[in-house]
Amino acid sequence: MTERVVLAYSGGLDTSVAIPYLADKMGAEVIAVAVDLGQGGEDMAVIRQRALDCGAVESEVIDAKEEFAAEYCLPAVKANALYMDRYPLLSSLSRPLIVKHLVEAAKRYGGTVVSHGCTGKGNDQVRFEVGIGALAPDLKIVAPARDFAWTRDKAIALAEERGLPIDVSHKSPYSIDQNLWGRAVETGFLEDIWNAPIEDLYEYTADPAEPRDADEVVITFEAGAPVAIDGETVTPFQAVAELNRRAGAQGVGRLDMVEDRLVGIKSREVYEAPGAIALITAHQELEAVTVERDLARFKKSVDQRWAELVYDGLWFSPLKVALDAFVADTQKYVSGDIRLTLHGGRAVVTGRRSEASLYDFNLATYDTGDTFDQSLAKGFVQLWGLPSRIAAARDARLG
Predict the structure, then answer these.
(1) Straight-line distance from the first to the last Cα atom of the chain, in angstroms, rounded to the nearest whole number
(2) What is annotated about its quaternary structure and interactions (predicted)?
C-alpha cells in the first residue's frame, strides 16, 4: 500500500520541492496542507494550486486566523507571555495550531507520515515533532532538510530540473516567518550581532523616528480578553489586526535581541509585533489594578514559565495545561479599560478604570478624606522587621 505523507506547506521553495522529493525518496503520495494564520503575502488559492502543480495528490488551505487569535494569541495575552521578558512568541504560538491541523489532515486522508521543512538547528523541529507526538504518537515524522542532508542548492537544482512553478532566481538573504501575532527576521547580515538592523527589514511597523501625531487608543477587557477598541466591539482577531495597524503605524513593537534557542545556541532575531506588544502592555497594567498583591507576584513566575514552555514546544504538556487553569482563574476580575498613547515606537499607559479595581482612592490619598489609619503603622513595622532584628542581634553576638 502506498504511504501517504502530510506535508506542512508554506508555498515557498523548500516545501514546494519537498513534494516531488518525498514522492521519489519514499515512493509516497504527498498531501499538502497550508494554514492561513494571517501571514499575508501570496493569495492562498495560488499556494494551494502550486502544491498540486508540484505533484501533490491533494492540497488544502485551512483558514485558521480566528482560531489562532482566540485560542493561541489570547491565552498569551492572559499570561503576559514574553520569552526572556521581551519576545511575544509569534512563531512558537503558531506551531501547535499547525500541528493540530496536520494531525487532523492525516486522519482525513489516511496519512501515516507527517513532514515539515525545519532544519536541525532550529526550535521549530522540536515544536512540530513534540506536538505531533503528543496528539498522534503513531504518526511517523520526516524532515527532508534535516534527515536527508538536503541543502538549498539541491532544492534549487531539483526545482529547475523538474520545471516546478517556483521562482528560484531571487534568493532572500533573510529567513522570515510571519503571522497575525508578528514577524520574525533572521540570518543574512544580522548574524553579525554588531550590525544594526536596517529599515528595509521591517514591514509591520513604520519608522518610529519619523515625525507624526500620537495615537490614543482605549482597549476594553473582560476577564483578561480584549473585547472592544475605542468602544467598538471586536473579536480577538479584530483586536490584534486593528492594533497591528495602529500601533504598527507608530513603530511600536520592534525588537532586536539575542535569544537562547531550545537547541542550546544563541541566535540573533529581529521581531516586530505591534499588536502583541500593545495588548500585553495594556493587559499587564489592568492586572496591576485588579489582581491582589500576592497573587500578582506569584503569577509573574507562572507567566515566565508559561512562555518558556510554549517557546520550548511543550504546548500540549501536562504542566502547560495546569498553568492554563491557574492563569484562567486569575483573570476573573481582569476587566476594565486601559488608555494607551502610541507614539515614537512606544505604547504608554495613560489611564486605567475598572469596576473590579483594588485601587482605593481614599486609602491612597494624602489629602483630606484619607481613611488609612496611620496609628497602626508603627506596630506593623516593628513586627514586620522583628525576624531581621533578631537575626542581626545573633550575628553580632556570635561575630
Answers:
(1) 81
(2) Homotetramer.
User: Is 201 marked within a binding site?
Assistant: no
One-letter amino acid identity for 280?
I
| C-alpha cell, 382 | 516593628
Instruction: Tell me the pLDDT tens digit for each residue of 123-170.
Output: 899 999 999 999 999 999 999 888 777 777 777 888 888 888 887 666
Which residues belong to the active site?
14, 95, 124, 175
Q: Which residues of the chain have pLDDT under 70?
A: 168-171
| C-alpha to C-alpha distance for 364 and 360, rounded to whole angstroms | 6
Contacts of 346-350 spanning 24+ positions with Cβ under 8 A: 346/208, 346/252, 347/247, 347/252, 347/253, 347/277, 347/278, 347/281, 347/282, 349/281, 349/282, 349/285, 350/216
Dihedral (C-alpha) 308, 256, 237, 16: value to the nearest 10 degrees?
A: -90
Is 175 annotated in a binding site? The answer is: yes
Strand, coil or helix: 16: helix
Is the pTM of the predicted complex or chain greater than 0.90? Answer: yes
Domain ranges of the chain: 4-171, 176-291+333-353, 361-398
248 is in an annotated binding site: no
Q: Which fold has domain 4-171?
A: Rossmann fold (3.40.50)
Residue 181 and residue 398: Cα distance in Å, rounded?
A: 58
37-65 pLDDT per residue, tens: 999 888 899 999 999 999 999 999 999 99
CATH code reported for the domain at 176-291+333-353: 3.90.1260.10
Q: Cβ distance 9 to 51 under 8 Å?
A: yes
Is position 174 annotated in a ligand binding site? Answer: no
Confirm or deny that 199 is annotated as ligand binding.
Answer: no
